[in-house]
Write a structure and sequence with these properties.
single chain, 28% helix, 295 residues, 8 helices, five-stranded mixed beta sheet, disordered C terminus, alpha/beta
Length: 295
């Protein structure tokens, strides 16, 4: 208790001037500038690959995200249930499951599909031999379920994406996004499909409740083995709580540095605080100062 109280006293004295500045806002406009809106916070899944594809069904635009190249936007035309035997392209987090340069559709009169890349059962990216569908790209939904792209775009994307490359399909505001991870990251975690889906469900609920930031989040890896054809939910970005609860730093001490003695923890924190505040004057060495206090 003595250590904790002393710790709080140090924090209070070092940062009192900042608190006064925040609390002395003269009007509502000054107060608003200190509020943080977390409504754009996303849960994140990770890939060790070099590319992933994002599809926005609302704008009929897609994006090829790269680890090292600029993001490539390209126009699409997705599926619609308004066509006979048609279906809307489903939202979800998927992975490329199958690739073939030429494929004839058994269901739709042996239509030739070029650079076919599936991610949701028989639903995938592809181009067509003719040009009549080009007028719909980037404009409206016109396919029976697949995501149609131009022949040039389909060829380029086919050459870059691999089996397991993630595919994120949403309607404009998902609660999940995808990022690139490195094999050397020490917080990677690979889960089975069932465990991954349950973990995501729990994390999305924390986003909605406002307590997403109260615990550390491992980097969940995805590929075509733990993301099945059924996909994973993208969540609803409109439900994300714009106010997320944050713990005070001192509540993380025991889990962050359990091997350090209490006075060593305080010593490191005091050093950081002094450097952050750029305190000038004759200040004793933190370690000796703390030892004197504990004596």
């Amino acid at each position: 208790m003595k250590v904790t109280l002393f710790y709080i006293l140090i924090c209070t004295s070092l940062f009192a001037s900042d608190d006064k500045k925040h609390n002395s806002a003269g009007n509502s406009n000054d107060t608003k500038q200190y509020k943080v809106d977390y409504s754009q916070l996303k849960d994140t899944l990770y890939t060790l690959g070099d590319y992933f594809i994002e599809v926005n069904l609302t704008t009929q635009m897609a994006f090829l995200h790269s680890r090292f190249d600029p993001t490539k936007p390209f126009e699409i035309s997705s599926g619609t249930a308004r066509l006979k035997d048609g279906m809307d392209t489903n939202e979800g987090v998927y992975a490329i499951q199958f690739k073939v340069e030429r494929w004839h559709s058994v269901q739709f009169d042996s239509t030739l599909m070029l650079n076919f890349m599936t991610f949701n059962w028989g639903i995938g990216f592809h181009a067509l031999a003719g040009n009549s569908y080009y007028k719909y790209l980037g404009v409206k939904r016109s396919s029976h379920g697949c995501v149609r792209v131009s022949r040039d775009d389909a060829k380029e994307i086919y050459q870059k994406v691999k089996y397991g490359s993630p595919v994120l399909v949403h309607k404009g505001n998902p609660a999940v996004f995808i990022a690139f991870a490195n094999k050397t990251d020490n917080d990677l975690q690979y889960l089975s499909y069932v465990d991954l889906k349950n973990t995501m469900s729990s994390r999305l609920q924390k986003l909605y409740n406002g307590d997403y930031l109260l615990s550390q989040k491992e980097k969940l890896l995805i590929d075509n083995n733990n993301v099945t054809h059924s996909g994973l939910p993208v969540g609803d970005g409109n439900k994300i709580n714009k106010r997320q609860i944050l713990k005070p730093d001192y509540l993380f001490i025991d889990t962050a540095m359990p091997e350090l003695k209490e006075y060593e923890i305080l010593n490191d924190y005091l050093l950081s605080a002094i450097q952050m505040k750029s305190i000038k004057g004759n200040i004793p060495q933190p370690a000796s100062f703390l030892e004197d206090v504990f004596d």
